[in-house]
Design goal:
This protein has 256 residues and is an alpha/beta fold. The protein is built from eleven helices and twelve strands. α1 runs parallel beside α3. The protein starts with 7 loop residues before the first strand and ends in a 9-residue tail after the last helix.
Length: 256
């Protein structure tokens, strides 16, 4: 593996009703704590970025909790991506003003792909992360809407390619099959995305051990690995994870 750009470790706050939650395969949610406190702790622990997803904003047809975003942003000093219920440029403006560095679009972009082009032409590619929730079913990876609730007829790879062509700066790919199961990331799909696209790929769904992160970088060729429950419940500490990855020959920004 080249020692190029440092691989990023990204905790994810899935937020519902103002609280951080975590489920398995997108269901059976349990509370994981206050997002402001968690965000602050991750920033201090050496996380490279933080992702905040208001996971029911799209299905409930409302906007992301701007006040919570503002409070998290005030406590952290790392890049901050926010997603959930973003349907228009006004939503992006509101979240950037609240302290987000990037926005993550998912359901709204699948329904109206022009949204990606609009965001990137106004704010730049670096602001737009295209999040894709996909499930492997009957030999194909297919995309889902509204936090994994609604299947679509879009395939993962062709949609990711279109998102890149429309200007998305990164792809955040969550395997619904692997989410919360802690058996490792969807490395074959990640590697194919990495081979077919020229923008960074963030791996999501399946982290259970430090080896899973290593495999996402080596086998999955991912640029970043996102996880939630293993960090929230203290199963893996970010500083120890980075030390481990460093000894495995993976270029990471070590915690001071």
């Amino acid at each position: 593996m080249s020692k190029g750009l440092a691989k990023r470790i990204i905790p994810c706050l899935d937020v519902k009703d103002g609280q951080t939650v975590k489920g398995t395969n997108f269901v059976n949610l349990r509370s994981a704590g206050d997002p402001v406190e968690l965000g602050k702790a991750y920033s201090q622990a050496g996380a490279d970025e933080l992702v905040f997803l208001d996971i029911t904003a799209s299905s409930e047809g409302r906007k992301t909790f701007t006040d919570v975003v503002t409070r998290v942003a005030q406590e952290i000093n790392i890049p901050f991506t926010v997603g959930g219920g973003i349907n228009a440029l006004a939503d992006v403006e509101r979240l950037l003003y609240a302290g987000a560095d990037k926005v993550s679009v998912n359901s709204a972009a699948l329904k109206r792909p022009e949204l990606i082009s609009e965001i990137t032409s106004k704010f730049g590619s670096q602001v737009c992360v295209c999040a894709i929730d996909a499930k492997f079913d009957e030999g194909k990876w297919m995309c889902y809407l509204n936090g994994g609730r609604i299947p679509t007829n879009r395939g993962l790879f062709e949609w990711a390619k279109e998102a890149e062509e429309r200007g998305a700066g990164e792809i955040l790919f969550t395997s619904m099959n692997h989410d919360g199961v802690k058996t490792g990331y969807a490395n074959e799909a990640l590697a194919r995305l990495s081979d077919e696209l020229n923008i960074p790929i963030i791996a999501s769904g399946g982290a259970g051990t430090m080896e899973h992160f290593r495999d996402a970088f080596f086998l999955g060729k991912a640029d970043a690995a996102l996880a939630a429950s293993v960090f929230h419940f203290g199963e893996i500490k970010i500083s120890e994870l980075k030390q481990y990855l460093d000894t495995e020959g993976i270029n990471v920004r070590l915690c001071l």
